């Protein structure tokens, strides 16, 4: 059973870096999470490869 993993992302609005918790059992995820600093909505595309490496693309609402 896989547990959660964390990765650092940068907010596309304010540039602040924060930790994002990712469930590696889902290989492809898209969702919105608010920045912990400026509270603006970040569109997240999360991909987990076969080795468990996490790639996150963080976009603002105008890049969608």
Descriptive keywords:
mainly beta, 64 residues, two-stranded antiparallel sheet, single chain, 0% helix, three-stranded antiparallel β-sheet, globular
Question: Care to describe what's here?
Answer:
This protein has strands at residues 5-10, 17-22, 28-34, 41-48, 54-59. The protein is mainly beta and 64 residues long.
Rg is 12 Å
How many helices? The count is 0
Rounded to the nearest angstrom, the distance between the terminal CA atoms is: 33 Å
In percent, how much strand structure appears in the residues? over 45%
Work out the count of structural domains. 1
Q: Residue ranges: pLDDT <50 for 5 or more in a row?
A: none
> Which strands sit side by side, in order, in the main sheet?
3-4-5
State the secondary-structure class: mainly beta
The strand count comes to 5
Shape: globular
Task: Describe the secondary structure blueprint for this structure.
Elements: E1 5-10, E2 17-22, E3 28-34, E4 41-48, E5 54-59
Antiparallel strand pairs: 1-2, 3-4, 4-5
Quick structural overview:
The protein is mainly β and 64 residues long. It has one domain. The protein contains no helices and five strands.
